[in-house]
Amino acid sequence: MISEKLNNQITQIGPQTPAGEVLRRYWQPAALVDEMQGSASKLAVNLMGERLVLLRNDAGGFVLTQRVASPDEAPAHFPDPESIEIVDGGPVYPVVEKKGIFFAYMGPGEAPEFPNFDCFRAPDSHVFAFKGLWECNWLQALEVGIDPAHASFLHRFLQDEDPADSYGKQFRDKAANLDMPMTQVLREYPRPDIEVEETDFGLKITALRHMANDLTHVRVTNQIFPQAICIPMSREMIITQWHVPVDDQNCYWYTMFTSFSKPVDKDVMREQRLKEHRLPDYAPLKNRRNNYHYNPDEQNTLTYTGMGLDINVHDQWAVEGLGPIQDRTREHLGRGDAAIVRYRLMLRKAIKAVESKKEAALPMRGDVDVSRIVGPLSNDAIATTKDWEAASWQADMQRRSECPWDASV
Fold first, then answer.
1. Which ranges carry the LigXa-like C-terminal domain (predicted)?
2. What does the pLDDT read at residue 201?
């Protein structure tokens, strides 16, 4: 457990707050390119506790600046573009477009380079971007993503569907080198050993599910500092997801789905997700107001939550159920929370570095050549228990060697 003062320090993100100042030292997803359609020249953006507007500039690029907004405006309010008023003399934040997402830099000094992650260097044809609104603080949204054990419980499927019918859905593949659905692996081996290693970009998190016949399922996921994750979706595809504060009590997840083999079917993936979200705010149709469409019959026969097959809904229920800002003064972390503990230490260290004006100590800042930070390795593999580390690496290398774009590391 931690004190209320420390909980406030690591969750609040407004201007000049400790965690907010750290997050402002990195590029933040601000909007989907899909949202700025046709000849539109303005788009309301609510980001990091500020009410902003995305503008096309004279050079054909984009910037973010302040707009006029009422104090009681809803966090995900999207006024008509023609009604947006710009604040004279407001701060102007630089914006770049990357693979379907507009990123903004809201910090002091020069904006940092982007690392050479797979989601950024894959061709546009192999990346699809989407987002969704969660009514909770950004930190609890991130922390569910760096907990490798939760998938065995929160995303437990009591039936295993044919992976051939599961394009664009997480945990619906078969485990590599083993004719067993991933849903079965997670269900039958629910208590992984978890190893956490600090890296140039954040944390590498390895979950080891020891199986019969001296085999181990190895699942490698990553925390990309300050508030992103990179995880395997299937053998073909990975997910890079940012948990972006709207304000202290609401956030968006922004996801890039990156394919190593075939181009992504963007129409199918967009259609799948728009069935679960409304426009223009990308709020989920299943939410606390309709009890996330909970069905006790489904819970008895199909899923652990009884809330459908979309795992985003499961995560949403779990993190929103903790309240707008999780009360960490009453929590009791255990061995399975190793990645959460390491991340919080990293965040507190970064807060101290910014406060003492030692920003060069931040991950991927200072003299670090971020163009040389590649990957990261994110995959599932089955290996003999004594050789799991090498086998996991080789599985990733094989996938990269067969990739039609340069995925070398």
1. 104-362
2. 96
The last residue of a domain, from among 111, 137, 169: 111
Task: Mark whether 381 and 297 lie in a shared domain.
Answer: yes
d(CA 51, CA 68): 8
Residue 257, in any domain of the structure: yes
Q: pLDDT at position 168, please?
A: 55
Mark whether 308 and 192 lie in a shared domain: yes
The torsion angle over the Cα atoms of residues 368, 372, 377 and 383, rounded to 10 degrees, is: -110
Q: What is the pLDDT of residue 171?
A: 56
One domain for residues 203 and 92: no
Let me know whether 45 and 125 are in one domain: no
Name the range with the highest mean pLDDT among 45-59, 95-109, 358-372, 373-387: 95-109
Give the CB-side neighbour count of residue 358, counting CA atoms within 13 A: 7
Q: Are residues 140 and 284 in the same domain?
A: yes
Q: What is the tally of structural domains in the chain? A: 2
The average pLDDT across 251-261 equals 97
Q: Using CA atoms of 31, 33, 35, 37 in order, give the dihedral in degrees to the nearest 10.
A: 150
379 inside domain: yes
pTM here is 0.94
Q: Where is the domain boundary, 69, 95, 111?
A: 111
Range of the domain at 47: 27-111
- Two tokens, residue 41: 């020249």
Chain centroid, CA 217 distance in Å? 23
How far is it, in rounded angstroms, from Cα 297 to Cα 390?
43
